[in-house]
Design brief:
Number of helices: 8
Strand content: under 5%
Largest sheet: none
Shape: elongated
Helix content: over 70%
Order of helices and strands: HHHHHHHH
Radius of gyration: 19 Å
Oligomer: single chain
Number of strands: 0
Distance between the termini: 14 Å
Mean pLDDT: 91
Low-confidence stretches: none
Length: about 220
């Protein structure tokens, strides 16, 4: 099996792992910390939250893995783009991990639940949630969008994958970036997020089955 074929399979698997780990992990964490009165019992029943955090950590590792492997392929088109891509994805991964680790603070807060007055508890809880939401709602989308734009633009220019996948990805990037910049929420939010989610899943399976197409020896 050629090096390109092996890289394609690994990157494809990492894309799929990152998508599912992020979606499931994020859903679990949000499900825990948005439940009314969760702080009263979280210290004694934190397994779900811990599992969600682990999945987010897996997502961060997968994101870095994707960037490291694809670096040399993007470099074929532009070394500056390659450096920017890997840098942006590493920052994105760090932000995802930071948001996950911050969620663990709620377990500590739950342990001190009886020792903190209700007003102070609400203030601390809101500060932690606000900080986490800023990371997930601002930092992660910005770095994800910029890195994904570089990736799909490079794919389009040197045809590493069929151009319809690249165009699909670019449209998805614009939509997810717009969703976060303009603060779109509610049911319509999924319409903006779905194109890039389905694109990365499709790309993952495509890379596993078909692989990157390139003439250069790497």
């Amino acid at each position: 099996m050629s090096k390109i074929r092996k890289d394609s399979i690994v990157v494809g698997l990492l894309f799929i792992i990152a998508i599912f780990a992020s979606l499931i992990g994020g859903t679990i964490i949000e499900g825990v910390i948005t439940t009314e009165g969760y702080l009263e019992t979280l210290a004694d029943n934190s397994s779900n939250l811990r599992f969600g955090v682990i999945l987010e950590l897996v997502n961060g590792i997968a994101v870095i893995g994707i960037a490291v492997i694809l670096y040399k392929y993007i470099k074929i088109y532009s070394e500056r783009y390659a450096v920017a891509y890997i840098g942006l994805r590493i920052i994105e991964a760090i932000a995802c991990v930071l948001a996950a680790v911050i969620a663990m603070s709620f377990i500590t807060l739950s342990r001190d639940f009886s020792a903190i007055n209700l007003v102070s508890l609400n203030i601390i809880e809101n500060v932690i949630k606000g900080f986490r939401n800023d990371i997930l709602g601002i930092l992660v989308p910005i770095f994800f969008s910029l890195s994904s734009f570089i990736l799909y633009y490079t794919f389009y220019r040197i045809k590493l994958v069929p151009r319809y996948i690249s165009i699909w990805g670019l449209v998805g990037v614009v939509l997810i970036f717009s969703m976060n910049v303009f603060g779109i929420s509610g049911n319509i939010q999924m319409l903006f997020a779905l194109p890039i989610i389905t694109n990365e899943l499709f790309l993952g399976f495509y890379l596993i089955i078909k692989g990157l197409k390139i003439n250069n020896n790497i």
